[in-house]
């Protein structure tokens, strides 16, 4: 991955995303990857004048992740997608689809996490 990588934590990620916005950075998207048992790696991707900056953090999948959708509204779509695909929750999303953005009602298991069931949708 090219560009600058800045390590963040769940305690400072929202503030760092706000710093990116105040610096004129454009929010591009989020990426996720499994970072060991019960851990999820998250990359927040930004662009300014064709230069990429990435915020990187590792989270415990059992703890809520602070949403950055209050800073960049478009992050809400990716956060909902990550919630659909992984067994994680984002705290403070501006719009929470409650695992219905991309998953059909008949899906009963979290796609990217083995043995995690989803409650049936009504």
UniProtKB/TrEMBL annotation:
Q: Which InterPro entries match?
A: NADH_quin_OxRdtase_su_C/D-like, NADH_UbQ_OxRdtase_30kDa_su, NiFe-hyd_3_EchD
State the signal peptide span: none
Domain NADH:ubiquinone oxidoreductase 30kDa subunit, which positions?
25-119
Cross-referenced SUPFAM superfamilies:
Nqo5-like
Its name, as the record gives it, is: Ech hydrogenase subunit EchD
